[in-house]
Structure formats: structure tokens, C-alpha cells
Write a structure and sequence with these properties.
This protein is α/β, with parallel strands linked by helices. The chain is built from eleven helices and twelve strands. The strands form two sheets. Strands 6-7-8-3-9-10-12-11 form an eight-stranded mixed beta sheet, with helices on both faces. Strands 2-1-4-5 form a four-stranded antiparallel beta sheet, with helices on one face.
């Protein structure tokens, strides 16, 4: 185990998903855990598998995708070994998700208050009056102005920031143990983004929430995460505490992501880019998937898949370069 952690609240081991027909891999051998009250950030380019990881943990895979290996354990309960009804019972109550785009995730013809009330009645069994009262409390908790007025609004009548707050209220309605946030600040301006991050930090502090925070924005990760998992083409490239990711990144992909952040203090120059693109599903190689874009690639990188090896007690990377030898000791994360 990397680092000294409490008993995990969420454990993912060897999770692999593939297209049902072609069996082309989407996620491969994903393993990590989240401690109570911990925030684990997930970063990577579009196509790296971030959202698919969230859907896999939630048990919400589309019909064309299948989990082909691995398991998901929530607070000692193995979800992948149970029926779909059992997984459905856990969703919302113990495991909740803030979806990427609230305008499409919210029901456009249903008042937002009723959408919160529905969760409270189904998951907590509250009668209608108490559910409405609790819905108002949740809207206040997520700092929606004039909740008595907004509770009767339709999603299109709210700003992007308020819609996102409604999504958070729905996710919190059944008091989950783990909250998955799939790029919750992507479509928001900088001021509203900061407000949403402050809200999530407050909820974590007050409710002891564990959070899996998915984003492509390393600046957001620096603000909210305790540990960071870097995904590339469906595999973990690196996982480490947030300070080590920024101070001492070990995987060339992590280094490239950090190098592509514009330096606002130094002299102006050309923006750094990562040559090439993430391989499409069905075109991913068995060896190191970043090797076609990597400036440090060696012959072995194009022949063998690197293990996720331990760099230090708290850091692991799937690369031969940081270790000085070709088969590092495999990490358990």
C-alpha cells in the first residue's frame, strides 16, 4: 500500500472494461483506493477513460460496454459480486455522482425541487412534507440564493452555477459515503468554479465525504485533491500525493501535462503542447501506450507494458525511466 492510509472506504482492484462486441479495451487493470474523508483527483486528456472510470464504479456502464475483470468494494461490500439490484440500492444512498453537464443530467421538464424530493422519498423514505422541507435545507446547504423561490424553478431558469449546485444537492440527498464528481467545474466561469470548489471543501469538512474528483484542469486538482491519479489511454500512468505530482512528477506524461500549463510569470513564449493524440479505442498498443508520443522512449517501451512501480513510499509510476531498471517492484495502490 502506497502511504499510510486508513481502512479504505472505496477500493477498486484490477478494473477492466471493454466494448462488448469487439472486446477492445477501454480501461485496463485500474487499481486504487480512497480513505474516509480523502479526495483523490483523476486527470488526463479527453479519451483517457476518466468518465468511463466513474460510470464503471457507479455500475452505470452503457449497454455497449462490459466490465471484463476486477472488482469494486464500497465500505467492505463488494458491489461487483452482487446483483444489479444490490448495486442500484447502493447508488444514491452510499455512492453518488455529480455528472459532467447538469443541463443534460437534470430533467428539463421537472422542477428542481421535485428532483431533490424524489431522491429523498425513494432513498430515505421521507413523506412528502418532510422531503420538501429537507430539500429546502439541502438547497441552503449548497448555497443557492433564495431557495424558497428556486425550489419551484425549472433547470433552464437557473444559471450554470446554480444548476451545478442543484446536482450537488441531489447527490447529497441520501447522505452518501463517497461522492464522484465528473468535471463539475468545466463549463463554469472562474468565479463560479471557485465557489463550487469552496462548497465541496466545506461539505467534505462538515460531512466527512470521500471524493473522487475527475477533471482535466491541474489547477483545480492542486486546490482540492490529496492524491492524484493520472490516467492515459485507459491505464494508470502515475499516482501520488498532490504535492509530489507537482514538485517531482515521474512519468513523462505527467511531466508533459505540467509543462503544458502556461507560465503567467515568465516571459512570453510558445505554448508547450504534447505531440500526437490519445489513441482511439481499438488502436491501443499492448506496450507502453504513451511511447509513440514520449521523448524519452526506449526500445523496451515499444515492446513491453511497464508495471506500475513504486518510486517512493507514496508515489508510483508506470514507466521504466524513473527506476533505472526495467522491472520495478509492482505497486499496490
Amino acid at each position: 500500500m502506497i502511504g499510510d492510509m486508513q481502512q479504505p472506504i472505496l477500493t477498486v482492484r484490477g478494473l477492466t472494461t471493454s466494448l462488448a462486441r469487439s472486446r477492445a479495451t477501454i480501461l485496463e487493470d485500474i487499481s486504487f483506493s480512497i480513505a474516509p474523508g480523502e479526495v483523490v483527483g483523476v486527470v488526463g486528456e479527453s479519451g483517457s477513460g476518466k468518465s468511463m472510470l466513474a460510470l464503471s464504479i457507479m455500475g452505470l456502464l452503457p449497454n455497449a460496454v462490459r466490465r471484463t475483470a476486477g472488482n469494486v468494494m464500497l465500505d467492505g461490500d463488494e458491489l461487483t459480486g452482487q446483483s444489479s439490484d444490490h448495486w442500484r440500492e447502493k447508488r444514491g444512498r452510499d455512492l453518488a455522482m455529480i455528472f459532467q453537464e447538469p443541463m443534460t443530467a437534470l430533467n428539463p421538464v421537472m422542477r428542481v425541487g421535485n428532483q431533490v424530493v424524489e431522491v429523498l422519498r425513494r432513498r430515505r423514505g421521507l413523506p412528502a412534507y418532510e422531503a420538501r422541507k429537507e430539500a429546502l435545507s439541502l438547497l441552503r446547504l449548497v448555497e443557492i440564493p433564495s431557495p424558497e423561490k428556486r425550489i419551484a424553478a425549472y433547470p433552464y431558469e437557473l444559471s450554470g452555477g446554480m444548476r451545478q449546485r442543484v446536482m450537488i444537492a441531489i447527490a447529497l440527498a441520501a447522505d452518501p459515503k463517497v461522492l464522484i464528481a465528473d468535471e463539475p467545474t468545466t463549463a463554469l466561469d472562474v468565479t463560479v468554479q471557485a465557489q463550487i470548489l469552496d462548497l465541496l471543501r466545506k461539505l467534505r469538512r462538515e460531512r466527512g465525504l470521500s471524493l473522487l474528483f475527475i477533471t482535466h484542469d491541474l489547477g483545480v486538482i492542486a486546490e482540492i485533491a490529496d492524491r492524484v491519479m493520472v490516467l492515459y489511454a485507459g491505464r494508470i500512468a502515475e499516482i501520488a500525493p498532490v504535492r509530489k505530482i507537482f514538485d517531482n512528477p515521474q512519468h513523462p506524461y505527467t511531466q508533459a501535462l505540467l509543462a503544458s500549463i502556461p507560465d503567467m510569470k515568465g516571459p512570453r513564449g510558445r505554448l508547450v503542447t504534447i505531440e500526437g493524440s490519445v489513441p482511439a479505442i481499438g488502436q491501443m498498443i499492448e506496450a507502453c501506450r504513451f511511447s509513440p508520443r514520449c521523448p524519452f522512449r526506449r526500445d523496451i517501451c515499444e515492446r513491453e507494458r511497464p508495471l506500475l512501480g513504486i518510486v517512493s513510499d507514496e508515489q508510483a509510476a508506470a514507466c521504466v525511466r524513473p527506476f533505472g531498471y526495467e522491472q520495478p517492484r509492482e505497486a499496490v495502490v
